[in-house]
Automatic annotation (TrEMBL):
Keywords: Hydrolase, Membrane, Protease, Transmembrane, Transmembrane helix. The keyword Transmembrane helix applies. It comes from Treponema porcinum. The chain crosses the membrane at residues 12-44, 56-74. One of its GO terms (cellular component) is plasma membrane. It comes from the Bacteria. It is a multi-pass membrane protein. GO terms for biological process: proteolysis. GO terms for molecular function: peptidase activity. This is Membrane protein implicated in regulation of membrane protease activity.
Amino acid sequence: MISFITSNLPWFWLGILVLCIIIEGITMSLTTFWAGIAAVPFIFISKTPLPFRWQLLIFALLTVALIVFTRPFAVKKLKIGKENNTNVNALEGQEVLVVQKITKFNKGYVKAKNGVVWTAESEDSTDIQKDSVCIVKKVSGNTLVVARKE
């Protein structure tokens, strides 16, 4: 098996590159991508008299160096693995207390269970009196759209 690989080294490195791209496409973790990048120069280096074991060693070291030094930067720039949800999205469906009357033409204020006061408007444009308990139906920017609790 080793003799077959050493006689077809450019194809071996091309196979490593393709395999890494496929795995990266499935996982989207930005780890095997760097091994694929490290395999590219070895497609050409394999034509030199450098022994296969040295190629493997250099490939492993290059892969580790790329992961350690470039992956954190790439993850930060691409924002991989981070959702852009804010805590305001968690308010949907929760009860809030009206602390300033909400009218058809004026927004009012509501207080969430955590004590934070939010700007609010009525879902159906009806007036909602102070001290009423409402349900948050949706979040529109920094305004909560609320409806009277039945």
